[in-house]
């Protein structure tokens, strides 16, 4: 029973996180949330549930100040920069551009804009239906507190019911043996 209750909670969390991720305009395939991995650990009287995803999700959540953008201008070797390569893949996937030179040119343009403005850029807000481009995890949890609390309450109720049942059975056995 514990596993299915935890799985239900994980499902609720994944759903609300994906909804916020997409509402903020980040989704191209939802891999950040779809590849979310949960680990649960039971310690004494508590259960700890942790979620892990690609580090990129944390970068998007926090944003990046312009001074931290890893771009110093065109060096003519953009193909060797992991940052430029990632932006080129982004241009290819988001904008459906298959031409290598065009997608590389767009990657450099994005990098130059991010170097000036940071990330998210002002123009990227047009992809968001919430008006936000950062804090997606916190916003998902705040906006869905009732739904998450309901899943946790059901889990806690089931746990207490099992413990109460075990305790009653133990007392019953003890009384019957006397």
Topology:
Blueprint: H1 2-23, H2 31-34, E1 37-43, E2 46-52, H3 55-62, H4 82-94, H5 100-117, H6 136-143, H7 145-177
Helix pairs in contact: 1-6, 1-7, 4-5
Plain-language structure description:
The protein is mainly α and 178 residues long. The chain folds into two domains: 1-63 and 130-178, no CATH class; 65-119, no CATH class. The protein is 60% helix and 8% strand. The chain has seven helices and two strands. It has helices at residues 2-23, 31-34, 55-62, 82-94, 100-117, 136-143, 145-177, and strands spanning 37-43, 46-52. Helix 1 (2-23) runs antiparallel to helix 7. The relative contact order is 0.16. The mean pLDDT is 86.
Number of helices: 7
Strand order in the largest sheet = 1-2
Strand content: 5-15%
Order of helices and strands: HHEEHHHHH
Oligomer: single chain
Q: Which tags fit this structure?
A:
7 helices, 178 residues, two-stranded antiparallel sheet, 2 strands
Quick structural summary:
This protein has 178 residues and is mainly alpha-helical.
């Amino acid at each position: 029973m514990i596993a299915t209750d935890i799985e239900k909670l994980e499902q609720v969390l994944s759903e609300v996180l994906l909804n916020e991720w997409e509402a903020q305009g980040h989704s191209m395939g939802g891999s950040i949330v779809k590849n979310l991995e949960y680990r649960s650990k039971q310690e004494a009287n508590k259960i700890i549930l942790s979620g892990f995803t690609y580090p990129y999700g944390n970068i998007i959540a926090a944003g990046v100040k312009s001074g931290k953008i890893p771009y110093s201008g065109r060096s003519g070797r953009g193909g060797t920069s992991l940052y430029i390569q990632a932006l080129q893949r982004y241009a290819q996937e988001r904008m459906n551009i298959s031409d290598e030179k065009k997608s590389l040119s767009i990657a450099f343009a994005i990098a130059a804009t991010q170097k000036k403005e940071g990330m998210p850029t002002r123009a990227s807000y047009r992809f968001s239906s919430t008006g936000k481009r950062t804090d997606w995890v916190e916003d998902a949890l705040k906006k869905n507190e009732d739904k998450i609390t309901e899943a946790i309450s059901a889990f806690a109720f089931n746990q207490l019911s099992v413990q109460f049942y075990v305790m009653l059975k133990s007392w019953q056995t003890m009384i019957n043996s006397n």
